[in-house]
Amino acid sequence: MSEKKSSIRILTYQGIPLWRDVRVLKALAQVVSALVVLGFLYFFFSNVISATNTKSLSLGFDYLSQEAGFPIGESIIDYDPSMSFAKAFAVGFLNTIKVAFIGVILATILGSIVGVMRLSSNWLIRNIASVYIETVRNIPLLVLLFFLFFGVITQLPAVENSILVGDFLALNNRALYMASFLSTATTGAWLIILAAAILFAIILFIILGQWQLRTGRNTHPFLLSLAVLLLVPLLGWFLVGEQPLLLDKPVLGRFNYEGGIAFTAQFAALLVGLVLYTGAFIAEIVRAGIQSVSRGQVEAARSIGLSLFQSLRLVIFPQAMRVIIPPLISQFLNLTKNTSLAIAIGYPDLFSVGRIMINQAGRAVPVFLMVMGTYLTLSLFYSVLMNIYNRRIQFVER
Fold first, then answer.
1. Which residues are CB-neighbours of 161 under 8 A, at least 6 positions away?
2. Residue-wise pLDDT tens for the chain (398 aa)?
3. What is the helix, strand, coil percentage profile of the chain, to 5?
4. Are the C-beta atoms of residues 341 and 145 closer than 8 Å to each other?
5. What pairing do the DSSP bridges indicate for beta strands 163-165 and 169-171?
6. 145 near 270, Cβ under 8 Å?
7. Alpha carbon of 375 to those of 244, 365, 369, 385: distances in Å?
8. Angle 85-118/265-291 helices, nearest 10 degrees?
9. Are 344 and 142 in contact (CB under 8 A)?
10. d(Cα 298, Cα 293) in Å, to the nearest integer?
11. DSSP string, 36-87
């Protein structure tokens, strides 16, 4: 009897008309979608090629080897107008990387601190964090950059009246000049010792932390790791012989300060604006992540004698990161793409240099393809790294 019923169901299912078969409809929808996408791509590229041929424009990248012919005010690598367009593009790319890399680190630190402050039991601390978050999040980033550059940094004293902090720092409306270090013959050996000290401190911190969790005894992992991190490089400083680093202080020259390391007004305004703006959003993400951890976990951590800092580091944040990481990736991507607003205040980032290249070379399409491809690559790089970390910290169901 059961075999007869199953055969009837099979015959009934096989007898469904094609226009009502779910499998056929799904396959047909995918085919139609693919045709629409291919049609759009064909329409777009055929129009681009037709327009460029009409205006006798080239879509090639041979211009990259030609002389750029324009200066760039700020560069990590050596550059002058006699160099190629490829070198100019590399300068803009590295300037964007510099702002994005430093900005991501500082915004994460600021957002984490403010996010914890937002949950403080102290009325003043909690409301200071709330005012900062609600104010910055509701101001457009471009307006914030204009305010920081034209309303704050350009109003600083002139070069001759710079704000000085000893011989190590000079601040004026052109740039921030700080003392830096010059390498010597023993710098390489000392850097190897420093890298070894950092690695050993990390390993020691992990081992002592696990031992503390297993035994319940306070092994002071943070203090001991910090001692290793400070004492080993200090000992290596004297063992390598010649002083591995020399201090290069900024000195007032004829027109401006010379020596040390300089952060231009444009770079400072862009970095501060991106950090303040993105940090406000990260603070809300951190707050939501902490609040996602059950109250019982927090009370359990305090009941076994963990301090507030230890509870955050060992119990709360490891669980909250599973909620924090996905939206945090989006904020990192936003910060990187928002560096393109640097064109409004004159910082030579990737987009700004690309605009100048279009004016000089007359190759709008190839340059924009390079700019878009670079931003896409940076975004995918962030996403891959953070998604790898996100998979490692997710709960594993057994």
1. 172
2. 455 555 444 444 456 777 777 888 888 888 898 999 888 888 877 776 776 667 656 667 778 888 888 888 888 888 888 889 999 999 999 999 999 999 999 999 999 999 999 988 889 999 999 999 999 999 999 999 999 999 998 888 888 888 888 878 888 888 888 888 888 888 888 899 999 999 999 998 888 888 887 887 788 888 889 898 899 989 988 888 788 888 888 888 877 888 888 888 899 999 999 999 999 999 999 999 888 888 888 778 777 777 777 777 778 888 888 888 888 989 999 999 999 999 899 899 999 999 999 888 877 888 888 999 999 988 888 888 888 877 776 654 44
3. 70, 5, 20
4. yes
5. antiparallel
6. yes
7. 38, 15, 10, 16
8. 40
9. yes
10. 8
11. HHHHHHHHHHHHHHHHHHHTT----SGGGGSB-----S--SS---TTSBHHH
Neighbours of 88 (CB within 10 A): 27
Task: Give the count of beta carbons closer than 10 Å to the beta carbon of residue 394.
Answer: 11
Q: Is there a contact between 149 and 345 (Cβ–Cβ < 8 Å)? A: yes
**Is the CB of residue 81 less than 8 Å from the CB of residue 70?**
yes
- Tokens at residue 128, please? 């200071």
Q: Which regions of 175-307 does DSSP assign to beta strands (E)?
A: 175-178, 180-183, 245-248, 251-252, 257-258, 261-264
Nearest to 375 by CA among 343, 327, 346, 335: 335
Helix (H, G, I), strand (E, B) or coil at 329: helix
Domains parsed from the chain with CATH numbers: 51-130+266-398 (1.10.3720.10)
d(C-alpha 163, C-alpha 170), whole Å = 6
pTM over 0.90: no
What the block records as the tokens of 342 is 């640097």
- Token pair, residue 200, equals 């050993």
